[in-house]
Amino acid sequence: MRVRRVVAADGAAANLLEVDAVSGNGDVLLWLPAMGVAARHYVPFAQALAAAGVGVALHEWRGIGSSDRRAEWRCDWGYRELLGDLEASIGAVTNARPDARLWIGGHSLGGQIAALASARDPARYGGLVLVASGAPYWRMFRHRWGVLAAYVLAPLLGAMFGHVPGRQIGFGGREARGVIGDWARSGRSGRYCVQGMHFDFERALAATDVPVFAHRLADDWLGPAASLDWLLGKMPRAPRDVVVHGAAELGTKADHFSWMKRPGVIAGLISAQMHGSRTISWN
Fold it and tell me: Can you give the CATH number for the domain in which 16 is found?
Protein backbone atom coordinates (compact mmCIF):
# COMPACT_ATOMS: atom_id res chain seq x y z
CA MET A 1 0.00 0.00 0.00
CA ARG A 2 1.25 3.47 -0.92
CA VAL A 3 0.49 6.64 1.00
CA ARG A 4 0.38 9.77 -1.14
CA ARG A 5 -0.11 13.25 0.36
CA VAL A 6 -2.56 15.25 -1.74
CA VAL A 7 -3.23 18.98 -1.42
CA ALA A 8 -6.44 20.71 -2.48
CA ALA A 9 -6.54 24.08 -4.22
CA ASP A 10 -7.10 25.90 -0.91
CA GLY A 11 -4.16 24.13 0.78
CA ALA A 12 -6.06 21.46 2.71
CA ALA A 13 -4.04 18.23 2.76
CA ALA A 14 -4.75 14.58 3.49
CA ASN A 15 -3.38 11.14 2.66
CA LEU A 16 -4.55 9.09 -0.29
CA LEU A 17 -4.12 5.35 0.34
CA GLU A 18 -3.45 3.31 -2.80
CA VAL A 19 -3.62 -0.46 -3.20
CA ASP A 20 -2.64 -1.89 -6.59
CA ALA A 21 -4.48 -4.77 -8.17
CA VAL A 22 -2.73 -8.14 -8.11
CA SER A 23 -3.76 -8.53 -11.76
CA GLY A 24 -6.54 -7.24 -13.99
CA ASN A 25 -7.25 -4.80 -16.78
CA GLY A 26 -6.02 -1.58 -15.17
CA ASP A 27 -9.25 -0.41 -13.52
CA VAL A 28 -8.87 1.90 -10.51
CA LEU A 29 -11.71 2.62 -8.10
CA LEU A 30 -11.55 5.91 -6.20
CA TRP A 31 -13.39 5.16 -2.95
CA LEU A 32 -15.12 7.72 -0.71
CA PRO A 33 -15.79 6.78 2.95
CA ALA A 34 -18.96 7.19 4.96
CA MET A 35 -19.46 10.34 7.02
CA GLY A 36 -17.01 10.44 9.92
CA VAL A 37 -15.10 7.31 8.88
CA ALA A 38 -11.36 7.51 8.23
CA ALA A 39 -9.97 6.06 5.00
CA ARG A 40 -7.80 3.51 6.84
CA HIS A 41 -10.90 1.57 7.90
CA TYR A 42 -11.44 0.57 4.24
CA VAL A 43 -8.01 -0.99 3.77
CA PRO A 44 -9.39 -4.58 4.09
CA PHE A 45 -11.99 -3.72 1.44
CA ALA A 46 -9.30 -2.25 -0.82
CA GLN A 47 -7.12 -5.33 -0.35
CA ALA A 48 -10.04 -7.63 -1.20
CA LEU A 49 -10.73 -5.63 -4.37
CA ALA A 50 -7.04 -5.68 -5.29
CA ALA A 51 -7.00 -9.45 -4.93
CA ALA A 52 -10.02 -9.56 -7.27
CA GLY A 53 -8.27 -7.46 -9.92
CA VAL A 54 -9.30 -3.89 -9.06
CA GLY A 55 -6.87 -1.21 -7.92
CA VAL A 56 -8.21 1.13 -5.23
CA ALA A 57 -7.43 4.65 -4.03
CA LEU A 58 -8.98 5.51 -0.66
CA HIS A 59 -9.90 9.17 -0.38
CA GLU A 60 -9.81 10.91 3.02
CA TRP A 61 -12.54 13.36 3.99
CA ARG A 62 -11.51 16.83 5.09
CA GLY A 63 -11.55 16.94 8.88
CA ILE A 64 -11.17 13.17 9.34
CA GLY A 65 -8.18 10.89 9.91
CA SER A 66 -5.04 12.13 8.12
CA SER A 67 -6.61 15.47 7.13
CA ASP A 68 -4.80 18.56 8.42
CA ARG A 69 -8.13 20.30 9.09
CA ARG A 70 -10.53 19.97 12.04
CA ALA A 71 -13.97 21.55 12.13
CA GLU A 72 -14.33 24.52 14.48
CA TRP A 73 -15.70 28.06 14.51
CA ARG A 74 -12.83 29.40 12.41
CA CYS A 75 -12.58 26.36 10.13
CA ASP A 76 -15.71 25.34 8.26
CA TRP A 77 -16.55 23.78 4.91
CA GLY A 78 -19.36 22.11 3.01
CA TYR A 79 -19.96 19.84 0.03
CA ARG A 80 -18.34 22.43 -2.26
CA GLU A 81 -15.01 21.98 -0.49
CA LEU A 82 -15.43 18.20 -0.32
CA LEU A 83 -15.87 18.12 -4.08
CA GLY A 84 -12.77 20.31 -4.43
CA ASP A 85 -10.77 17.92 -2.27
CA LEU A 86 -11.96 15.11 -4.48
CA GLU A 87 -10.43 16.84 -7.49
CA ALA A 88 -7.04 16.68 -5.78
CA SER A 89 -7.36 12.92 -5.27
CA ILE A 90 -8.56 12.41 -8.84
CA GLY A 91 -5.59 14.37 -10.12
CA ALA A 92 -3.19 12.26 -8.06
CA VAL A 93 -4.68 9.01 -9.35
CA THR A 94 -4.82 10.02 -13.01
CA ASN A 95 -1.31 11.48 -12.95
CA ALA A 96 0.08 8.27 -11.46
CA ARG A 97 -2.04 5.97 -13.66
CA PRO A 98 -2.84 7.90 -16.87
CA ASP A 99 -3.83 4.76 -18.79
CA ALA A 100 -6.14 3.36 -16.10
CA ARG A 101 -9.90 3.41 -16.41
CA LEU A 102 -11.14 5.42 -13.42
CA TRP A 103 -14.25 4.45 -11.45
CA ILE A 104 -15.73 6.28 -8.51
CA GLY A 105 -17.75 4.97 -5.61
CA GLY A 106 -18.47 5.23 -1.95
CA HIS A 107 -20.13 4.09 1.22
CA SER A 108 -23.17 5.95 2.57
CA LEU A 109 -22.47 9.71 2.23
CA GLY A 110 -19.45 8.75 0.14
CA GLY A 111 -21.78 7.17 -2.39
CA GLN A 112 -23.87 10.33 -2.58
CA ILE A 113 -20.83 12.56 -3.16
CA ALA A 114 -19.54 10.06 -5.72
CA ALA A 115 -22.87 10.27 -7.55
CA LEU A 116 -22.66 14.08 -7.62
CA ALA A 117 -19.09 13.94 -8.90
CA SER A 118 -19.93 11.42 -11.62
CA ALA A 119 -22.94 13.44 -12.78
CA ARG A 120 -20.84 16.60 -12.89
CA ASP A 121 -18.25 15.03 -15.22
CA PRO A 122 -19.61 11.70 -16.53
CA ALA A 123 -17.04 11.25 -19.29
CA ARG A 124 -14.33 10.91 -16.65
CA TYR A 125 -15.61 7.67 -15.12
CA GLY A 126 -16.16 4.07 -16.18
CA GLY A 127 -18.96 3.74 -13.64
CA LEU A 128 -20.33 4.52 -10.20
CA VAL A 129 -20.19 2.00 -7.33
CA LEU A 130 -22.44 2.33 -4.27
CA VAL A 131 -22.36 0.29 -1.06
CA ALA A 132 -24.90 0.90 1.72
CA SER A 133 -25.78 4.22 0.15
CA GLY A 134 -28.85 6.16 -0.90
CA ALA A 135 -30.38 9.60 -0.76
CA PRO A 136 -31.07 10.87 2.77
CA TYR A 137 -34.60 12.12 1.99
CA TRP A 138 -36.54 11.83 5.24
CA ARG A 139 -39.69 10.37 3.67
CA MET A 140 -37.73 7.28 2.56
CA PHE A 141 -37.06 6.03 6.10
CA ARG A 142 -39.16 3.90 8.41
CA HIS A 143 -38.74 6.27 11.35
CA ARG A 144 -39.27 9.26 9.14
CA TRP A 145 -40.28 11.80 11.76
CA GLY A 146 -37.21 11.06 13.86
CA VAL A 147 -35.03 11.39 10.76
CA LEU A 148 -36.65 14.72 9.88
CA ALA A 149 -36.07 15.93 13.43
CA ALA A 150 -32.36 15.05 13.06
CA TYR A 151 -32.18 17.18 9.90
CA VAL A 152 -33.60 20.11 11.85
CA LEU A 153 -31.58 19.67 15.05
CA ALA A 154 -28.14 18.82 13.60
CA PRO A 155 -27.62 22.25 11.97
CA LEU A 156 -28.69 23.86 15.26
CA LEU A 157 -25.95 21.94 17.06
CA GLY A 158 -23.47 23.22 14.50
CA ALA A 159 -24.62 26.76 15.15
CA MET A 160 -24.22 26.25 18.90
CA PHE A 161 -20.79 24.58 18.97
CA GLY A 162 -19.17 25.69 15.71
CA HIS A 163 -19.19 22.07 14.56
CA VAL A 164 -21.42 19.03 15.05
CA PRO A 165 -20.02 16.72 17.78
CA GLY A 166 -20.89 13.49 16.03
CA ARG A 167 -18.92 11.23 18.35
CA GLN A 168 -20.88 12.51 21.31
CA ILE A 169 -24.31 12.11 19.68
CA GLY A 170 -23.50 8.76 18.06
CA PHE A 171 -23.55 9.77 14.40
CA GLY A 172 -20.56 10.68 12.23
CA GLY A 173 -17.41 12.31 13.54
CA ARG A 174 -16.51 15.90 14.32
CA GLU A 175 -18.46 17.32 11.40
CA ALA A 176 -18.21 20.77 9.85
CA ARG A 177 -21.40 22.74 10.16
CA GLY A 178 -21.32 23.44 6.41
CA VAL A 179 -21.26 19.72 5.59
CA ILE A 180 -24.12 19.10 7.98
CA GLY A 181 -26.01 22.01 6.48
CA ASP A 182 -25.74 20.57 2.95
CA TRP A 183 -26.55 17.05 4.19
CA ALA A 184 -29.58 18.18 6.20
CA ARG A 185 -30.86 20.33 3.34
CA SER A 186 -30.85 17.34 0.97
CA GLY A 187 -32.43 15.23 3.70
CA ARG A 188 -35.30 17.66 4.17
CA SER A 189 -35.96 18.42 0.51
CA GLY A 190 -34.91 15.22 -1.26
CA ARG A 191 -32.84 17.32 -3.67
CA TYR A 192 -29.13 18.07 -4.03
CA CYS A 193 -28.30 21.77 -3.94
CA VAL A 194 -24.75 22.55 -2.84
CA GLN A 195 -24.27 25.80 -0.96
CA GLY A 196 -21.97 28.15 -2.86
CA MET A 197 -22.07 26.22 -6.15
CA HIS A 198 -24.04 27.43 -9.14
CA PHE A 199 -24.44 24.00 -10.66
CA ASP A 200 -27.70 22.11 -11.17
CA PHE A 201 -26.88 18.69 -9.76
CA GLU A 202 -30.45 17.45 -10.16
CA ARG A 203 -30.39 18.17 -13.90
CA ALA A 204 -26.94 16.60 -14.22
CA LEU A 205 -28.05 13.45 -12.40
CA ALA A 206 -31.08 13.18 -14.67
CA ALA A 207 -28.86 13.39 -17.75
CA THR A 208 -26.05 11.03 -16.74
CA ASP A 209 -25.75 7.60 -18.32
CA VAL A 210 -22.81 6.40 -16.22
CA PRO A 211 -23.42 2.74 -15.22
CA VAL A 212 -24.31 2.28 -11.56
CA PHE A 213 -23.44 -0.79 -9.50
CA ALA A 214 -25.28 -0.66 -6.17
CA HIS A 215 -24.97 -2.97 -3.18
CA ARG A 216 -27.60 -2.81 -0.44
CA LEU A 217 -27.43 -4.56 2.93
CA ALA A 218 -30.66 -6.36 3.80
CA ASP A 219 -30.80 -5.21 7.44
CA ASP A 220 -29.43 -1.69 6.96
CA TRP A 221 -31.91 0.78 8.46
CA LEU A 222 -29.56 3.66 7.57
CA GLY A 223 -29.68 2.66 3.90
CA PRO A 224 -33.13 1.17 3.24
CA ALA A 225 -34.39 0.14 -0.18
CA ALA A 226 -36.50 3.28 -0.56
CA SER A 227 -33.49 5.52 0.06
CA LEU A 228 -31.44 3.76 -2.62
CA ASP A 229 -34.40 3.81 -5.01
CA TRP A 230 -34.76 7.57 -4.51
CA LEU A 231 -31.12 8.12 -5.42
CA LEU A 232 -31.24 5.78 -8.42
CA GLY A 233 -34.50 7.40 -9.52
CA LYS A 234 -32.57 10.64 -10.04
CA MET A 235 -30.53 8.84 -12.73
CA PRO A 236 -33.18 7.35 -15.05
CA ARG A 237 -30.80 7.10 -18.03
CA ALA A 238 -28.13 5.19 -16.13
CA PRO A 239 -28.08 1.39 -16.49
CA ARG A 240 -27.68 -0.28 -13.14
CA ASP A 241 -27.11 -3.57 -11.38
CA VAL A 242 -28.52 -3.67 -7.83
CA VAL A 243 -27.47 -6.47 -5.48
CA VAL A 244 -29.01 -7.09 -2.04
CA HIS A 245 -26.80 -8.90 0.48
CA GLY A 246 -27.98 -10.96 3.44
CA ALA A 247 -26.15 -12.00 6.58
CA ALA A 248 -25.76 -15.65 5.56
CA GLU A 249 -24.07 -14.63 2.32
CA LEU A 250 -21.71 -12.14 3.94
CA GLY A 251 -20.81 -14.20 7.00
CA THR A 252 -21.60 -11.20 9.21
CA LYS A 253 -24.48 -8.84 9.95
CA ALA A 254 -26.01 -7.29 6.85
CA ASP A 255 -26.03 -3.78 8.29
CA HIS A 256 -24.47 -0.41 7.53
CA PHE A 257 -20.95 -1.11 8.80
CA SER A 258 -20.41 -4.82 9.53
CA TRP A 259 -19.70 -5.63 5.86
CA MET A 260 -16.43 -3.67 6.20
CA LYS A 261 -15.05 -6.43 8.46
CA ARG A 262 -15.90 -9.18 5.95
CA PRO A 263 -15.72 -7.39 2.58
CA GLY A 264 -14.73 -10.31 0.36
CA VAL A 265 -18.17 -11.14 -1.06
CA ILE A 266 -19.02 -7.56 -1.96
CA ALA A 267 -15.52 -6.92 -3.34
CA GLY A 268 -15.76 -9.99 -5.56
CA LEU A 269 -19.10 -8.93 -6.98
CA ILE A 270 -17.91 -5.38 -7.59
CA SER A 271 -14.97 -6.78 -9.54
CA ALA A 272 -17.33 -8.94 -11.59
CA GLN A 273 -19.51 -5.91 -12.34
CA MET A 274 -16.57 -3.72 -13.30
CA HIS A 275 -15.03 -6.40 -15.50
CA GLY A 276 -18.30 -7.07 -17.29
CA SER A 277 -18.94 -10.62 -16.13
CA ARG A 278 -22.28 -9.52 -14.67
CA THR A 279 -24.88 -7.94 -16.90
CA ILE A 280 -26.66 -4.67 -16.12
CA SER A 281 -30.18 -3.56 -17.00
CA TRP A 282 -32.27 -0.44 -17.29
CA ASN A 283 -34.59 -1.44 -14.42
Answer: 3.40.50.1820
Read off the pTM.
0.95
DSSP string spanning 42-72?
Answer: GHHHHHHHHHTT-EEEE---TTSTT-S---B
Q: Do you know the residue count of the chain? A: 283
| Ramachandran sector of residue 172 (left: φ over 0; alpha: ψ -120 to 50; beta: rest) | left
Q: Could you count the other beta carbons within 10 Å of the beta carbon of residue 121?
A: 14
DSSP structure string for 226-254: HHHHHHHHT-TTS-EEEEEE-HHHHTS--
Q: How many domains does the chain have?
A: 1
Average pLDDT (126-150) is: 95
- Interatomic CA distance for residues 27 and 114, integer angstroms: 17
Residue span of the structural domain in which 67 resides: 2-138+199-274
Q: Per residue in 145-164, pLDDT tens?
A: 999 999 999 999 999 999 99
Which residue type sits at 89?
A: S
